[in-house]
Amino acid sequence: MSSAATPAADLPAPVRRALRSANGGDTDGFLDAFTDDGAVDDWGREFRGADAIRGWSDAEFIGKQVTLDVTGVRTEGATTTVSAQVGGNGFTGPSDFAFTVQGDRIALLRITG
To answer: What dihedral angle (degrees, nearest 10) is formed by the CA atoms of 72, 76, 78, 81?
Structure first.
């Protein structure tokens, strides 16, 4: 996560934790940022709960050595959208990650273009 482009203070704690974990290859830390029934919506494909999110992440996200270089942040209500340049051995290029926060955890991560 590029702290120069986006000060950590701009991000809710669970979003900051999820991004740091993804960039650090820490799947358990990434999963811990989600509510028990949290979900990832990857372009319309939904993965709900820790086991499903782990399977998706192992195959397509952290398992592909993802890197996320944050280029922008905007927040509306409980949703913080992080724009990032994605690197690694899977999808690469610009993408948006909309994190819906519930309390101190992420209820939904929606990945779009």
So the answer is: -20
Q: Which domains does the chain have, with CATH numbers?
A: 8-112 (3.10.450.50)
Say what the pTM is.
0.91
107 contacts: CB under 8 Å, gap ≥ 6: 34, 35, 37, 38, 39, 100, 101
Can you tell me whether residue 60 is helix, strand or coil? helix
Distance (Å, rounded) from C-alpha 53 to C-alpha 56? 5
pLDDT tens-place string over residues 63-87: 999 999 999 999 999 999 999 999 9
**Is residue 30 packed enough to be buried (19+ CB in 10 Å), middle (13-18) or exposed (0-12)?**
buried
